[in-house]
Specification:
The complex is a heterodimer of chains A (about 300) and B (about 575).
Chain A: H1 2-29, H2 46-55, H3 62-74, H4 87-122, H5 127-141, H6 144-158, H7 172-202, H8 205-212, H9 217-245, H10 249-255, H11 260-269, H12 273-301
Helix pairs in contact in A: 1-12, 4-5, 4-7, 4-9, 5-7, 6-7, 6-10, 7-9, 8-9, 9-12, 10-11, 11-12
Chain B: H1 2-10, H2 15-27, H3 40-44, E1 46-51, H4 66-75, E2 80-82, E3 89-91, E4 94-99, E5 104-109, H5 123-134, H6 152-155, E6 180-184, E7 187-191, H7 199-202, H8 213-217, H9 219-224, E8 232-238, E9 242-247, E10 261-266, H10 270-278, E11 284-285, H11 290-293, H12 297-302, E12 306-318, H13 324-327, H14 330-338, H15 342-348, E13 354-356, H16 381-393, E14 401-407, H17 413-427, E15 434-440, H18 443-451, E16 458-464, H19 471-478, H20 492-503, H21 507-524, E17 527-539, E18 543-544, E19 560-561
Parallel strand pairs in B: 1-10, 14-15, 14-16
Antiparallel strand pairs in B: 2-3, 4-5, 5-7, 6-7, 8-9, 9-10, 11-17, 12-16, 12-17, 13-17, 18-19
The chains are: A mainly alpha (about 300), B alpha+beta (about 575).
């Protein structure tokens, strides 16, 4: 397993190099000079444009720019944005909030989604199964922004139970509703995935053997059935962690949470590539590592899977 | 009680939705603030207003967008300020601004003015700041504002082949404008290249602020935490989250701030700010989202907390006059103008949030005269067809498809589609030209294409005034070679008239000349006036007296916390 992990880590190197190069290439090749839109209807002074291009190395050939970027990345220097604010400090402010929100969302997805999936899978065709099927259908058909605005309006504006937006500190209680909104869609997916998996495995040989051995019902479900049924669910949740870490632009916008999604969104609109490139690079890393972690967890759940 | 409420609502839905509502109820313990009775703002003297992240630091000569501009106006006082009700210029830091010929101006400061670090505001602070902004190696965005001052060409050199070319701009001969002279501690003299009647009005624009000595020691650090001279002082800037300013105890103006602290809370989404406003968590926003404007919902939501006003922004459509195919001729442009049903579009698309204009100047500025565009800005499909026939008779064949361009990252799609529909209907199906709406992805790309004069079609242009005067709607836009003359319009007679207006010494006569110049635009119709922007703002129930400036910003001296 150790060798496998190292091999996988080494495989990350070309992937990271390739993706960062493509990110760099694409953002700097986008049409429209990032400094042309900065002066509204007036043209920006030439001296300003020249000075900014020089400061951010935009007058250099692409490969030189990419080399500089790699050098800075390795030395941990993320540079400053067009407004001379350190990108590292921007990330430092935004990322903890996004991580908190993402983890809470994944926990809701896992606990509620898997719970509902198991309950409905075990009693197929029963009352709970029908309730879960209908409610997940309901959630799946609602886009996130509808759920978000609805809960904000209902709980925040009409009932005054929560404040409509989250404060700068973004504490855990404040994030409960946004996390639920963020989790709602995938919670339904998780529930359905778990249900299918459970239903399928209920008929498998090893479950029949376990029941025949005289194991208690709880043990059959918790140890034998659940552990095997969770593998596809885990794959789903793992990639979910990766994509949630990149921020949830819509949810963050609705509840005014100052996370990565909003930072990236604003930087893209302003064409501030000094923020877009490092943030996108870090997101690539997070995504790759989350996937690696999921792959390693398979072995824990299913001893038949060996890493060679 | 909370859970019950949640459960009632969720009965219709099912298990998961019920879980959501119940958990939401549990989570609200910390933040509830809509209890009546005492005013929660009164204890701290703090108000919260909607904000957004500035693109540059707080150096007045380098700010040109509203996110930074709003706070900049809170913390810096200028020589002149504009009255929030009438938009008229009034002396602020200046004791007097005098001239006999509109060319040499003597500016005297009030005595006893202070910076927030305790140093006095002197004439030298003004001269130093203006020299710094004008000097091209400092690369300040506002440098061109000083082009009227004598000696500008010696301190600000242009790149001979533009920023894209290999050549570099030569180093300027000197870093001091020869037209600026410090007379004594409180007096300085400004000599212009040519007489300019509106120079006094211009002085209220933020680029003409002073900078303290502290700035020159550390310009970069200063930009993040400036030392200022306005009604409020800068406290802190948490990037992407908030900016805090506090009432300046040394502020010498006659009207003092009525609140102790203003928190400029940044929102990414206008809807979020609006939800906070409705539930009284936010005290002011000047951006009511379209969803709330629809059917005047915001007026029902807010009641007497709604503020309905005007601001100095107009919308126009400009033609690329340098392009044979899409520039058209004057009659063609007149035909297009008369084919646009401005009233219906402003009523239906903007819910009367914008008003049709009949000229090229915002109705709220000094020198505005109604009807400069004459009948050409009225909706008359029959006449539009006549003009179209005339245009064709004169030898212009319009292309089969005529685009009007906008940027997709703004909200322009709806009104441009309504406009092209209006034109197409008025022209009829057999007109041989069909107007369409086309988008470029970003504002930057649109502006890039326009300034390189490569755009194929007409394009949306909006003009937000820099200072409330008719001159600001004429010179930068329609003079030959002017900085924002996007269509490359050129008319010698108009240039001469504008020059005459610039140099007239009597303000009333000068305004009359600008109005004559405006009326001359009728001949060529280089841009089609559409409508002027209204202003929709709202306040929470905790504050009172709120006024909005003609620039669409909060007047920071007006906002006060209600007595309980």
């Amino acid at each position: 397993m150790g060798r496998y992990a190292i091999r996988r880590l080494l495989q990350l190197v070309p992937v990271v190099l390739g993706t960062t190069f493509i990110i760099n290439y694409m953002v700097w090749q986008l049409p429209g000079d990032p400094f042309a839109g900065r002066c509204g209807q007036r043209p920006c002074p030439d001296a300003y444009v020249t000075a900014m291009r020089e400061q951010f190395g935009l007058d250099q050939p692409l490969l030189v720019q990419y080399g500089n970027f790699l050098k800075n990345l390795v030395t941990g220097n993320l540079g400053v944005d067009f407004n001379s604010v350190s990108v590292a400090s921007l990330l430092g402010d935004a990322w903890p909030i996004t991580i908190r929100l993402a983890l809470m969302a994944v926990i809701f997805e896992a606990v509620i989604g898997i719970g509902a999936g198991v309950l409905s899978g075990l009693k197929r065709g029963g009352f709970i199964d029908n309730v879960v099927t209908i409610s997940t259908l309901f959630l799946l058909s609602l886009p996130i922004f509808v759920t978000g605005y609805l809960l904000q309006w209902l709980l925040g504006v009409q009932l005054g139970i929560i404040t409509p937006t989250v404060t700068d500190e973004a504490t855990v209680p404040e994030l409960i509703v946004p996390a639920l909104v963020l989790a709602s869609l995938n919670m339904a997916f998780t529930a359905r995935l778990t249900r299918t998996s459970i239903v399928e495995n209920l008929r498998s040989d090893y479950v029949r053997t376990a029941v025949a051995k005289g194991l208690s019902n709880r043990r059959v479900v918790a140890i034998h059935l659940l552990r095997n049924s969770l593998i596809p669910v885990l794959t789903f949740l793992g990639t979910e962690v990766g994509s949630l870490m990149s921020g949830a632009i819509i949810t963050e916008g609705i509840f005014n949470i100052h996370g990565i999604g909003g930072l990236l969104w604003r930087a893209i609109l302003d064409q501030d590539y000094t923020v877009v490139v490092p943030v996108a690079t870090l997101l690539v890393l997070v995504y790759l590592l989350a996937n690696l972690l999921v792959d390693l967890l398979y072995g824990v759940l299913d001893p038949r899977i060996r890493y060679e | 009680m909370r859970v019950t409420k949640g459960a009632k609502i969720a009965t219709g839905t099912a298990l998961l939705a019920l879980g959501v509502a119940a958990c939401g109820g549990g989570g609200g313990g910390g933040g509830s603030s809509s209890g009546g009775g005492d005013n929660p703002r009164a204890a701290t003297g703090t108000v919260f207003i909607r904000g957004c992240e500035p693109q540059t630091g707080f150096v007045p000569g380098n700010i040109n967008e509203t996110c930074g501009g709003t706070i900049n106006d809170f913390v810096y006082s200028k020589l002149v300020k504009y009255n929030s009700d009438t938009a008229a210029p009034e002396l602020d830091q200046a004791e007097s601004i005098e001239t006999t010929d509109n060319k040499v101006w003597t500016i005297k400061l009030k005595s006893g003015l202070k910076w927030t670090d305790g140093t006095p505001v002197t004439a030298k602070n003004y001269v130093d700041a203006w020299n710094y902004t004008a000097y091209s190696p400092n690369a300040q965005l506002g440098s061109s504002w000083f082009a009227d001052i004598k000696g500008f060409d010696k301190v600000n050199t242009e790149d001979p082949d533009g920023p894209d070319g290999p050549k570099e701009a030569p180093k300027p001969e000197t870093d001091k404008l020869s037209g600026l002279e410090v007379v004594d501690d409180l007096t300085f003299k400004v000599t212009l290249n040519n007489p300019i009647a509106v120079f006094r009005t211009k002085l209220g624009y933020s680029t003409f602020s002073a900078l303290p000595d502290a700035f020159f020691k550390d310009p970069k650090g200063f930009a993040q935490k400036p030392v200022t001279n306005g009604p409020f002082k800068f406290v802190q800037w948490d990037h992407n989250s908030q900016i805090i300013v506090e009432a300046n105890p040394d502020y010498a103006g006659p009207e003092k701030p009525k609140v102790k602290k203003i928190v400029y809370k940044m929102y990414k989404d206008d809807n979020a700010a609006y939800a906070d406003l409705v539930s009284n968590n936010l005290d002011f926003t000047e951006l009511i989202p379209p969803s709330a404007l629809a059917g005047d919902k915001w007026k029902t939501d807010l009641g007497d907390r709604a503020i309905d006003g005007q601001q100095g922004v107009i919308q126009t459509v400009t033609f690329p006059l340098y392009d044979k195919e899409f520039g058209g001729n004057a009659d063609f442009r007149k035909a297009v103008s008369m084919a646009i049903d401005r009233q219906t579009i402003t009523d239906k698309i903007f819910n009367k949030g914008r008003s049709p204009i009949n000229g090229w100047v915002s109705p709220i500025v000094e020198g505005f005269k109604d009807g400069a565009c004459g009948e050409l800005c009225t909706y008359d499909p029959a006449k539009a067809k006549e003009y179209l026939a005339k245009a064709k008779a004169a030898g212009y064949t319009p292309p089969a498809e005529f685009p009007i361009w906008s940027n997709a990252d703004g909200t322009h799609k709806e009104w441009i589609e309504a406009t092209v529909n209006s034109i197409n209907q008025a022209f009829g199906a057999d007109a041989g030209v069909k107007f369409v709406h086309k988008d470029m992805p970003t504002f930057a790309e649109l502006r890039d294409t326009i300034t390189q004069h490569k755009i194929k079609g007409a394009f949306r242009t909006g003009w937000q005034m820099d200072y409330p005067h008719i001159e600001n709607f004429m010179n930068p836009l329609y003079k030959t070679g002017a900085s924002s003359n996007d269509g490359l319009y050129s008319n010698k007679a108009l240039d001469a008239k504008l020059h005459e207006a610039d140099t007239a010494t009597d303000p009333a006569q000068s305004n009359a000349l600008y109005q004559e110049a405006e009326a001359m635009l009728q001949q060529d119709m280089p841009a089609i006036p559409l409508w002027s922007y209204g202003l929709q703002a709202g306040t929470s129930k905790w504050v009172t007296g709120v006024k909005v400036t003609p620039f669409g910003e909060l007047d920071p001296l007006s906002i006060a916390i209600k007595e309980a």
